[in-house]
Design a protein that fits this description.
about 40% helix; 3-stranded mixed beta sheet; disordered C terminus; single chain; alpha/beta; 5-stranded parallel beta sheet
């Protein structure tokens, strides 16, 4: 097996975990012997100056040139300029819509592309499960990091035998939650997460909103999970902020 360096990597990262999303690709690139340019999210630009200074000090301590790691801020035009600017590989983490644009732009120069795109993560509740014990886990998955989590479940497929009990248990947990800092129970808005008004409305503590979001199934049966439809299962959704 012949191993060779990639060269210059370019990575476009999302805003949901600013520190992890910057540090993770940098570590992988440098340990593989490559340089890297990070296009940080325009919604997480404030922190990147601090991160870059920290990384440059690490380069100094290791005797490596600071230019091995560069961070660029900007909007879509900045990202497109980097994708088409002659890098050796492009890594993108974000939405399907933007991922298609990244791939299209990179195709003109046949630049290799790695995409990590958002999806509708499914959480399956089998008929022998204990809904009361799963309620906390299910809600943690949905609302972790205020819903901005790439692996957070967005759709629940629940067998009929435990469906009503699961909906009841989850509704109780959701209605007990506040949008507030951990050490302060003063409720805050979520506008700083750049959500749309529709996203904010789904997160209200109105019992009717939560009950509708949790307990109404958009379609009976499971056609996408098994080869043949199952009459013993139903699907339900939990309201959470949309992920990009």
């Amino acid at each position: 097996m012949l191993r060779s360096l990639v060269g210059s990597e370019m990575c476009i990262r999302d805003r949901n975990y600013p520190f992890h999303n910057v540090l993770n690709p940098i570590i992988a690139a440098l340990f593989a012997g490559n340089s890297i340019v990070i296009k940080a999210s325009e919604y997480a630009s404030w922190s990147t100056k601090f991160y870059l200074e920290m990384i440059h000090r690490c380069c100094d301590a290791a005797g490596a040139p600071r230019d091995l790691v560069q961070i660029v801020t900007g909007y879509g035009a900045a990202g497109n300029a980097l994708v088409s600017g002659g890098v050796d590989i492009v890594i993108f983490v974000g939405s399907v819509e933007v991922g298609k644009k990244v791939m299209a732009s990179a195709s003109h120069s046949l630049t290799p592309v790695i995409l990590e795109l958002g999806g509708k993560d499914v959480f399956v509740i089998c008929d022998d499960a204990n809904p009361a014990k799963l309620a906390q886990l299910a809600c943690r998955g949905v609302y972790q990091n205020m819903g901005q989590n790439c692996a957070g479940p967005e759709r629940f497929l629940v067998y009929e035998r435990v469906y009503d009990e699961f909906c009841k248990a989850v509704t109780e947990v959701v209605l007990s939650m506040n949008q507030a800092p951990p050490l302060d129970q003063k409720v805050v808005t979520l506008a700083d997460l750049t959500m749309t008004l529709a996203d904010l409305l789904t997160m209200t503590r109105s019992s009717s909103t939560v009950a509708h979001a949790v307990c109404h199934s958009p379609c009976p049966g499971i056609k996408s999970l098994w080869t043949t439809p199952s009459p013993k299962a139903r699907s339900c959704w939990l309201a959470a902020p949309s992920r990009t």
